[in-house]
Specification:
DNA-binding FrmR family transcriptional regulator; mainly alpha; 3 helices; Methane Monooxygenase Hydroxylase, Chain G, domain 1
Amino acid sequence: MAHLSGDNTKLIQRVRRLKGQLEGIERMLVDGEDCYKILQNTAACRGALNSLTRQLMEEHIVHHIEQEASASEPIKAASRDLREILHSYLK
């Protein structure tokens, strides 16, 4: 993960939050909670995982395309467009 921008604290916090959410879903299943509540929690997990995925993909694009010394301005612009699309799609 050397190409990720410096401090990974926020990424690690996201992963830990996801872990907690998944453990909560496991407890709900063990305790026989209502399906609706479980589905709400799985939807929240999916959203959190999408956000983590989006952030990792954006970091990858910035590092490997936008910050590449030889990248032309059209390539950098296309890279920014791609990041905007990812942001819209992976909310």
